[in-house]
From TrEMBL, chain A:
Keyword Thylakoid found: no
Protein name: Histidine-containing phosphotransfer protein
GO-annotated molecular function: histidine phosphotransfer kinase activity; protein histidine kinase binding
Source species of the chain: Nepenthes gracilis (Slender pitcher plant)
Keyword annotations of the record: Cytokinin signaling pathway, Two-component regulatory system
Summary of the function given for this chain in its UniProt record: Functions as a two-component phosphorelay mediators between cytokinin sensor histidine kinases and response regulators (B-type ARRs). Plays an important role in propagating cytokinin signal transduction.
CC annotations in GO: cytosol; nucleus
TrEMBL record, chain B:
Coiled coil location: none
Family matches, as CDD domains: REC_hyHK_CKI1_RcsC-like (cd17546)
Gene3D superfamilies assigned: 3.40.50.2300
PANTHER family, per the entry: TWO-COMPONENT RESPONSE REGULATOR (PTHR43228), TWO-COMPONENT RESPONSE REGULATOR ARR22 (PTHR43228:SF1)
Positions of post-translational 4-aspartylphosphate modification: 58
Protein's name according to its UniProt entry: Response regulatory domain-containing protein
Length: 141, 127
């Protein structure tokens, strides 16, 4: 009985954690689309896709970081890299990270090095924060 | 359903996340899927005699992008439906992509609803 109570408690916590990710703007409707694709055939689909995202996005972020170290900045290339990264973020519903991508692209169009650098730092923070939150959620779910 | 009767789809995308999502979306609809990571691999499959009912083609890919791959497939006489799937909103790059020979173009990410709506628009019924 204790284990059933513990399971119910964990389930409840998972639900609250999940809801907070939406309420706080970390995730959008695309994450729900992923959840709807999870079934007996693909029982860990959401966690699998998120893991793939973090694996691939690390490489994309490294490309952007390298491009930001060049002088002068190639804003067209940076915009292209960011478009690719933003596409990845859209695929898992990473809303806050995606918003930072949009901001970064606006700074690229404005030709603002400071804006790009600042926004990229914020983007990395949001990317990392979401990773921690999703890891915590998957532990409970 | 026998494999040979299933609607066959070729997923062409360099993004592993997108390939995984599209695979599951399509297999849920009863499709048989094959995935490659760039346009050149897609063209090579057709050159080697493979056929697909539908190709989901990403635009930006290394080696050969989606626009070039679509041009080559149409030049080869490939009649498969080709749906472009891109992160780009409407604009000159998307128009050029469509002009290469797409039947339709949708914005990523593909969802079950978008796929159903697009296939309906194209008059395709996956049985």
């Amino acid at each position: 009985m204790n284990s059933e109570i513990d399971r119910n408690k964990l389930h409840g916590q998972a639900g609250l954690t999940r809801q907070s990710l939406f309420d706080q703007g970390y995730l959008d409707e695309q994450f729900v689309q992923l959840e709807e694709l999870q079934d007996d055939t693909n029982p860990n689909f959401v966690e699998e896709v998120v893991t793939l995202f973090y694996r691939d996005s690390a490489r994309l972020l490294a490309n952007i970081e390298q491009a930001l170290e060049r002088s002068p900045l190639d804003f067209a290339k940076l915009d292209d890299y960011m478009l690719q990264f933003k596409g990845c973020c859209s695929s898992i519903g990473a809303k806050k990270v995606k918003n930072e991508c949009t901001q970064f692209q606006e700074y690229c169009r404005a030709g603002s090095s400071d804006g790009c650098t600042r926004t990229f730092q914020q983007l990395k923070r949001e990317h990392s924060t979401l990773k921690n939150k999703l890891e915590a959620y998957f532990q409970l779910a | 359903m026998a494999a040979e009767m299933m609607y066959s789809v070729l997923i062409v995308d360099d993004d592993a996340v997108v390939r995984r999502i599209h695979k599951v979306v399509l297999e849920r609809q009863g499709c048989k899927t094959t995935a490659v990571t760039d346009g050149q691999e897609a063209v090579n499959l057709f050159r080697h005699g493979e056929t697909f009912d539908l190709v989901l083609m990403d635009l930006e890919m290394p080696v050969m992008d989606g626009k070039q791959a679509t041009l080559e497939l149409r030049t080869m006489g490939v009649k498969s439906l080709i749906i472009g799937v891109t992160s780009r909103r409407a604009g000159p790059e998307v128009e050029a992509f469509i002009g290469a020979g797409l039947n339709d173009c949708v914005e990523k990410p593909l969802t079950s609803a978008k796929l159903a709506a697009t296939l309906h628009r194209l008059g395709v019924h996956i049985s």
